[in-house]
Amino acid sequence: MSYPYQIKSFEAYQEAYQKSIQDPEAFWSAIAEHFTWKKKWDKVLEWNFTEPKVEWFKGGKLNITENCLDRHLATKGNHPAIIWEPNAPDENHRILTYKKLHEKVCQFAHLLKNNGVKKGDRVCIYMGMIPELAIAVLACARIGAIHSVVFGGFSAQSIADRLEDAKAEFIVTCDGAYRGAKDIPLKSVIDDALIGNKTVKRVIVATRTRTPVSMIKGRDVCWEDEMKQVEEKGITFIEAEAMDAEDPLFILYTSGSTGKPKGVVHTVAGYMIYTNYTFVNVFQYEPGQVHFCTADIGWITGHSYIVYGPLSAGATSLLFEGVPTWPDAGRFWDIVDKYKVNILYTAPTAIRSLMGFGLGPLQGKNLSSLKVLGTVGEPINEEAWHWYDEHVGKKKCPIVDTWWQTETGGCLISNLAGITPAKPGWATLPMPGLQMVLVDENGKEIIQEGEETISGNLCIKAPWPSILRTTYGDHERCRTNYFATYKNMYFTGDGALKNKDGFFRITGRVDDVLNVSGHRIGTAEVENAINMHAGVVESAVVGYPHDIKGQGIYAYVIYQGSHTQDTHGTGDLVRKDILQTVTRIIGAIAKPDKIQFVSGLPKTRSGKIMRRILRKIAEGETENLGDTSTLLDPGVVDEIKNGRL
Ligand code: PRX
After folding, report:
1. Tally of CB atoms within 10 A around 136
2. Is 298 in the pocket of ligand 1 (CB under 6 A)?
3. Cα–Cα distance between 122 and 162 in angstroms, integer?
4. Is the distance from the beta carbon of residue 401 to the nearest atom of ligand 1 less than 6 Å?
5. What are the pLDDT digits (tens) for 552-576?
6. Is 316 helix (H, G, I), strand (E, B) or coil?
7. 608 or 553: whose pLDDT is higher?
8. Cα–Cα distance for residue pair 297/318, rounded to 1 Å
9. What separation in Å is there between the alpha carbon of 486 and the centre of ligand 1?
10. Is the CB of 405 within 6 Å of ligand 1?
11. Domains of the chain and any CATH numbers
């Protein structure tokens, strides 16, 4: 067997699951034995969900990069660790073997040290999908600096907020990034983000697009120049920092129901073990296979299943710079064909968008190397599931529907490819170690009995190794967000169904968080951004079903600005201004799909916006709006209904 802890039958899954619940410490420590430690742990697990406090492998010392790189050198030094496919198909691809990646990571780690980065410092990474992004991430981990990767689509304002929250002193970025036909000037966005910033001391700028950049003396340095200095000294190695198991590995910001994104903190050992375990088991990875996760490293999926999970397993991970529809909608299939990809892991929104192009782009592409398909980020509709199964997997590849979150570090509910049963639209069974329960609004556990399918809020009773440990700089926020809604449970924010087989189907968020194209966006965040626009008095944002994005953003806006006249006409100019404002404040990903101008919002007498009503109208439901008699001004509902877009 390739990985001693790889589950190879349904019975083995059931056995592992039982063991993991009966004796989690024995279960996870047996798996932890297969990793490289500088010092073994003293205690496997200590926890309570009231503070909350979760500590796995306390007292252990290790470095995740020794597990992702050094330990593979003897046997896999010349195997590809990263295959990089550039944005433009006619540009040369790059292959970094484990030896090469190890060398580059060590060299860049030196570079970071030369620039003053120390263990525990926060390094913000804002780059396109080039190998240097993975190198920067791993180099931080090598010296114990905490990386905070920010997705390249976020605006200067979003970066500024994150820099301030993390008190980051260092930034690694690029001159620009290519994404399809676009060329995004990353360094210039960083320059804007740094106006007024007081913590950042150094910005390291890699060259990718050769876009002209302003380099500020004493603050900005060039990646290539600095690397050259390290290389000229003949340096190819740096000792890996001995990290405590519970030292922070990274911060990743994600949206919640308040206006301000939260810095989710993951720690070294638990995160490493869980991402590795799930990578090997969910995808049933076999050594030598090529794994292609199409996410961006700026999201948790990229952290866990492009970088840490695959590399800790000695796998070959494909990193793609571009987008699925450029230069045409056959790009994924070209990549699968070119590199003989075995595992393809993508988002339902990508599948739906590619479905829209018909079967033409698939023609003439050899997809016979594919063994396993995966989806993540949002519920997959049956139509998309069957299309993926039939036209991509040719009905020969199991599809894993992996449910998880930034906060969970790795997949928590998923079938294991070809090992446990799949069911279209259902994430199916929990991973070993996961005690998933459904509760009613009072926190009472709903027990599934007989043939019935139950429905409730999805909670977890006990910690798994890669549960978030805190929200950076504000532990109380972590407690109130995840551990206070229901006593002694982690609350996911999702609703779910559970059927007679114990399978789970995720129905979507039950809080004020939207899932747009698999990206999490808080309604309050979008409202704050819209309200920044001069002339906007108030706004309310809700989600509505969208054929490709899963959810679209619907904004109701009360506007009294200088273009008021215009909102009585088409309102197009004001709409464009508002979109521009949202793009500036958050980023283009948060732009509302629909903006309806209204004269008032349905509010209770205490001033609370009745979102339920707004959501129903946005979804096209205009009849059964429920009780509107408690509203301050019930008449406003008719106006909103009549003006629906
Ligand atoms: O609502 C769930 C949805 O995405 C949320 C987590 O978003 P994020 O932290 O950005 O992480 C996305 C990638 C792991 C969840 O609360 N979600 C994620 N995966 C699925 C899903 N909904 C249904 N099915 C899934 N497989």
Report:
1. 28
2. no
3. 11
4. yes
5. 999 999 998 766 666 666 678 899 9
6. strand
7. 553
8. 12
9. 20
10. yes
11. 98-244 (3.40.50.980), 513-642 (3.30.300.30)
